[in-house]
Amino acid sequence: MKSLKISFKIYCLLISIFFIFRIILFLVNLDKIEGTTGGEIFNAFLIGLKFDTTTACYIMALPALLLVITELCGKMPNIIRIFIIWFLSIVSSLTFLVCGADIPYYNEFITRFNISALNNMKLGQAGTVIKMIFGEPKFILYIIPVIVLLILFVWLIKKIVNEAKNFEKGGYKNKSIGTVVLVVLVFFGMRGRLDLDNVPICLNDSFFCSNNFLNQLGLNPNYVLLTSAMEDVENDYFSNVEPEKAIAEVQKQLGIEIEDKDFPLSRRVVADKERNNYNVVVVLMESMKSNNLTHFGNKRNLTPVLDSLCDKSLLFSNFYAQNTRTCYGIFSTLMSYPSMYPGNPMYGVPLRKYESMPSVLKENGYSTAAIIPHDKQFDNIYGFFLANDFEKILSEEDYPKKEIINSWGIPDHLLFDHSIDLIDEITTTWGGDKPFFINILTVSNHAPFIVPDIFTPRDPEFDDEDKEIEYADFSIGYFLKKAATKPWFDNTIFVFLGDHGKHCATPYPISLDFVHIPLIIYSPSLIKPEINTQISSQIDVFPTIMGLLGIDYNNSTFGIDLLKQKRKYAYFMNGNKYGVVDDEWYYSSDLQGNSLGLYHYPDNDATNYEEQEKEKAIEMKFYGESNWKTMLILNGNRTEVSRFLR
């Protein structure tokens, strides 16, 4: 039967191209398979065949149906043949583009291409992303195989489908048998398994060993993208956690003994010191993981300035980001709310106003401002900041065009120059004698890496990323040296933290380097140097700063004052996975509650101890899921968080 043969050729062509993309992903990530066996690698590719088959069968279901119908009729009309060629060319081209984008996306976020990746392509942001891609040579390399494979596919698909021109009449018995065979094969191919008693193939079927890369290698990024797009955050995620128990658990974690009748997390915080009106400067450093610092074991001496600050500041050494993208780091640091996949917490209609650091400080007489290096529309940061009580926001359009060196705007040292000017403007004109709060977002430690002429790397043999880390650290010193000459310096608290970390090779579902970041609170006149080793998180920055300022306020967040309370675990997300960590153990799961293991991470042990330490795994799982479930309940059921301001 000709339609069966043609369909099989289309299937083989799709599978072959998916295989090529998987090979490229594999070769680019050879460093991540250390310690694995040949059998495990083979199994990953075998699982990949299953996911590719499912994806291919969904693509070719409609063309296959048209082929069998026209063959049964004994004739293939030209319009149907042309439609099949165009349909396969367009749909397959889109899937190949996703496969091409998946490779650099995985290298950046250590998760396969999913719906959260499309957040950066919203209206007003696509230009920035495109400029970033073409500004980084290695990204362009991934476009080449996409273009070549697209041209090859379109050429071959025309030849294959044109074979349908010569359908013969008659032979209905054989055609009927062939039709049944083709329908059955496509049906079971779409399911990804032959067993009708079980659910169709799902993401969990890719997990088979302790190596995180191999567990994801078998996935087809198109399957991941569509699956993540169809997931309903409110109904699917943490559906096994009872709302009442989740809220009660979070209240227990936060030390809330008497529930506010209006809002279950609301509690009045009365300062134990006299209000001091110190200024506050929060610097969110792009991709600054703890492991960049010599203080945390890095041997390359990339961050002499930050290492020096560690010895002169209040340093939180067990501090974790909430997620692995900048928008989440901004949101959690300023709003003290957990960050949740998928989507961007700074989008929404209407934009939410939170009981946040800028809003509480503004209510208490502070001037508030923010400065960002790039387009103000990216991640909707400008609108979100305006909605949450930042009185002035500087962005790319406010800087001379000659200072804009790439898609991410101006380099860090110039950003700090403008920050100094902004603070001077606040203290001498519109802010006057009021204390100020300013949030600064750096970006130089982000590809494409461009080191400005003002800085000379210590070792020319360092790769571009290490040079950029050195430059980012240099810029912090540049900023503080200038700030030290200003009259407002001695009365200012400087807070330095990463927006997130950067992935390193790891046996774990989420690299801890991706979320383990430094928190440095520096003020030589006001802050006594100390190393605080307790588990802590970005959501704790706001309450901790309020404690240092001696301000009474209403706290309706998930954060605690780290100088007065203790947190048992930190929790974080990356894509469709989450982690919960303490000083000794690291538990991970996906958002549907499927466990990915319990690990003893201080010695980089890849052994899954979940069976031996069941109670510990259950406790950590419940801790993390209770917070995210509570966040979903509270953030979804109220229209204005600002009504809880006191």
Number of domains: 2
CATH topology description of the largest domain: Alkaline Phosphatase, subunit A
The name of the CATH architecture of the largest domain is 3-Layer(aba) Sandwich
Unreliable spans: 637-646
If you compute it from the alpha carbons, what radius of gyration comes out, rounded to the nearest whole angstrom? 27 Å
Briefly note the structural class of the backbone. alpha/beta
Strand proportion, as a percent range, falls in 5-15%
Q: Spatial order of the strands in the main sheet? A: 6-5-7-2-8-9-3-10
Helix content: 40-55%
Q: How does the major sheet shape up?
A: 8 strands, mixed
- Going by CATH, the homologous superfamily of the largest domain would be Alkaline Phosphatase, subunit A
Average pLDDT metric: 88
**What's the end-to-end separation, in Å?**
75 Å
Number of distinct helices: 18
Description:
The protein has 646 residues and is of the alpha/beta class. It has two domains: 229 residues, no CATH class; 300 residues, 3-Layer(aba) Sandwich (Alkaline Phosphatase, subunit A). The protein is built from 18 helices and 16 strands. An eight-stranded mixed β-sheet has the order 6-5-7-2-8-9-3-10, with helices on both faces. Strands 13-14-15-16 form a four-stranded antiparallel β-sheet, covered by helices on one side. Strands 1-12 form a two-stranded antiparallel ribbon. A hairpin with a 3-residue loop joins strand 14 and strand 15. The longest helix has 36 residues. The radius of gyration is 27 Å and the shape is elongated. The C terminus is likely disordered.
